[in-house]
Amino acid sequence: MMRTLFIKEVRDALSSRRFWVILALCLILIPLGVEVSLKDYQTRLQNYREAVRIYREETKQVQDVLYKEGAKAFAPPAQLSFLSLGLELVLPNVAETPAGRADPPVVMRLGNNESRDNLYEFFTGPLDLVFVVAVVMSLLAVILTYGAISGEKELGTLGQVLSNSVPRAKIILAKATANGLVLVIPFLLSLILSLTLVELQGGLPSAAGAWTSIGLGALVSVLLVGVFFNLGLFVSSLTKQAVPALVTLLLVWVFLYGVYPRLAAAAAQILHPVKSDALVALEKSQIKHDIEKARDAELETVAQTMPRDFKSEAFKAGQKKQQEIHDRYQAKLEAGWKAIDRDVEARRSTRDALTADIARLSPVSSFVRPMAELARSGWLESGQFRREVRQYEEVLNREIFDKQRIIRMPRGGMISNEADPKAPAPVFAYVPTPEDDVVRDILPDVALLILFNLVFFAGAFVTFLRYDPR
Amino acid sequence: MTNQQPILKADDLSKRYEDGVLAVDHLNLNIYPGEVYCLLGANGAGKTTTINLFLNFIPPTTGTCYVNGIDVTKDPLEAKKYVSFVSENVMLYGNFTARQNLDFFAKLGGKTNLAKSDYYQVMRRVSLQEKAFEQRVKNFSKGMRQKLGISIAVIKDAPGILLDEPTSGLDPKAAEEFLEILEELKKEGKAILMSTHDIFRAKEIGDRVGIMKEGRLVMERTREELQYEDLVKIYIDYMKSEPLKI
Amino acid sequence: MFTILYLKELRENVQNYRFLLALLLCLVLIPLGFTVSQKDYTERRKAYDQTVQDYEQSRKTAVELWSNGGSAFRPPSPLSLISDGVEMVLPNSVETRGYISDQGAQVQFNTSRRVDNPFTALFGRLDLAFIVSTVLAVLVMIFTFNAVAGEKERRTLALVVANPVPRPTVVAAKMAAGSSLLAASFLVGTAAGLLLTIALGLSPFSQAGTALPFVIAVGVSLLFLLVFYNLGLLVSSASRSSVSAMVTLLAVWVGLAMVLPKASVIAARLLLPVRSQQVVDLEKSQIRSQFNRELEATVRDLTRSMPGIKDMSMEEYFKQKNANNPIVAAFEKAQAERRAEFAARLNTALDKVDAEFEKQRGRQAALARNLSRLSPVSCFVHVLVELAGTGFVEEKAWRDTRSRFKQILDREIAPKTGSFAFGDVTYGSMDLDSNALAPKLLAGPVPLESRLAAVWIDLVLLAIYGILFFACAHLAFLRYDVR
User: Fold this and answer.
1) Of the candidates C144, C143, C141, which has an alpha carbon nearest to the alpha carbon of residue C133?
2) Which of C372, C401, C432 is the last residue of a domain?
3) Chain A: nearest CA to B58, how far in angstroms?
């Protein structure tokens, strides 16, 4: 019985245009999207390598850091950005110290250098896998299933089928599995085709972790398509006619894809506001200003007592005292800044977690966010970059900037740096987020997507058992 | 006939819909093997509801339907093995050919080992044109579709057959051919319940004729009894009389 | 005849769920979107005001500007509720890098983001452009997909056309009725949105010059809805069933609103590839380094060859300098001449690099835009984004700001600084009047005329698309099989 029903569903899908249209769309859009995203990544990779090369040529020694362009840290572009361009154009991927004289503690300023080159792309959005799945595949799932039940009822074939000794559970199971395969098989085939093309063109740089992420990305994509598929079955079994089912599903899709995630971001900011970067910077500079004022007053006092003879003992003693004052105030400044940073970071991560939680109610958010993390173009990777920049900062301060010696005199002063100017400049080496962290981060969303699938299918199942075929 | 068990039996069957309408009012029917029972009535008289009750598409308010002695609400899957159904407007799967539709429904009905020739034979039997056998159903005329519908019933070979207004919209020739098939099936011993408002055909084919009005079976006559009465006159008289109190 | 049909269409649409749905969606989404955008804008404006205030306090004089660094700030766009555009990724300010020397000021973009919530970057904002081009577009599809095909299925179309009614009148009445209901819902929603923002103290008109662009944006949105409505009618009149009409419309919408714009970017990049800004900046710094090396060599030669100077020791030189020895003065003057010449050559070289790069980028961007104009949705969002002041005109103006700021600094400050080298020691002089005010650059918004001038093509195209779709819908309906 199941075999008969299943074969009929498959044959129905194949003999109508549905399957072939789905196959064609998948075979065109997915490899196209992957290919162009890959080319785009390769361009950005080339730009990154070029930038790093030029920077390293110009900044070989400590004196280059101090007197030339300063130190820079670059994050490589996300190699799996064909899965999801994510926040590549927005979150920081470059950090630099101020050029010219830099007073310790030096804070590297984070920025993003991609967006200027990709302004129009930012405007239109990327043609990555996330787009193809969240828009095209989801709509295809809806188009495939809106008439699964109400359509057959309208035709009269449902009544004809039910006049036989066929349990309703088998009918809906056969529909779900057959149509599910009609949707998923072209998708997976296209994905495999795209990845083969990627491999043929030189593959992906670091092998092992990449394939796990790609596999998880495929799984999450299939789950999202499944959500709309089962939702389609559910709505179809709730309506008497096929057309209202289609209209309803369309509205639901627009809401889940477009409206709700945008609202979630706004809601979280209202519920748990975080000061903007600009205001935080102002606060910090205010603190610095106050501390420096107090410090300079003390330095001036000592300066008054210092003789002009550079070589005298009194001068050297005064210099030592000034250094102590410097160090003391510097520690105070660092402590003050660290406190602000900690506070802001805490608030920011709470707000981001809150946003993620609110947004999760839409399966589309539970899909888009994990895909960005898997592609390494999301929050985790950016957070990793930030952390590594801070570590690099510490090295720079310790080995270069903290060795600054200021001598304050009644009219003016002298600045020198004790670090060996010819010593090699510290180099920034980027370490990506470990695979496990990413997987752990996306697990709740994966679980939620599975839950959505189950709930909608269960809804369809239960409703169909009592569906009126007349 | 009277010593056999009825294949299709309605026992004090009533159906009141949620909006209060009493569609079927204490209906009693017994249809035996080898007989055609025509259920006559105006639109909304309750004929289609009766058929839907036999198919367990809706539950009865009171009373029971039996197919081959099985209570359709208690064991619907078992009961459905013994009944075939031809709807008023046979649509079927438009992208499938006639044979593919027949093949699918035959298997659903339990006949899993039939060959292509068996299908062809059945379709020939119902006078469906040869060239239509492998054509997509969506291009069929109404007559062709009704023939395909009855061929599905034929191939299932169930003892009971339910037909809902099978000749409505058919031209006289197609309707005649259809009734010839029913006659053959009757001779094979099938119990046939056919709802219709074609009084002429009802008189021709029906061994017994029942008139439903507002859910009630107001009159039942055998063919012999009818020979000496004008069914048309009876029908119209009953239709004209006072509406029954619900 | 037209009136009869028009009224019947109106009644039909009002009585079924569609009109109510349109009204509800507009009344909920538009005020919500406006309020959230305005709230966000208020925060950004506050941050901007405070930053500018803080900056001006510590850069009152030119000397302060020289020692603390100079910046020019970009105010956030007050009309980003119309469209967020590229506001999120535009730099907040331009600033000097290092000290301003006699070689000129180095002015760079401050690329630290104003985006504080990455989710907004990932999903976007609920601005007017999104609501109209996505939510209302879907609504239009729901209104139109069975306008013709559905009536045919219900057999009422045959009934209408069986009367002495000219077919063009039928389709014109459909268009007029449906679009007037949609327009009414949209206007009601927009009005509600404005009222809500004003009531909450978040009025978008608090800045000057915001009312007119807003009104124009509303008008263009109405135009877009009309264009899309005609497209829907066209598809419905070309389909045999309402379901296939809906599926076709969906495919067309996804293609026009999403696939085509993205594809045009990709095509432009493949056809006209361009280096990245970062690489260009680094190339420029290489050029700078090279020039500096040459300059140092030249100055060293000068030091070794100039009579009187070449034999001096470090101590002797500074002693002579403090004594205002004319030989030292002449030496410094000779250096200054060399440096000025190098500065001029350096700036020419750098400008050339910039100009070439801008030209290439401009060509690529223009190609992408032109290709994407094949979609009426692209034309629509192009116009809205410029009206909102968050688009490409703004971006270009901002890049010009960088050059202008550099020019101001090069004119007012750079010539007053001097840098001299003797041996390994570099010393500077500053000739800035301690009372001289710091040069300021207030980057104002681009005037409306310029913004509109950049998108007049899109406006015209939008109108053409509307006429085209309407004409085709007419034609299709004239030949439509009503049976």
Assistant:
1) C141
2) C372
3) 8
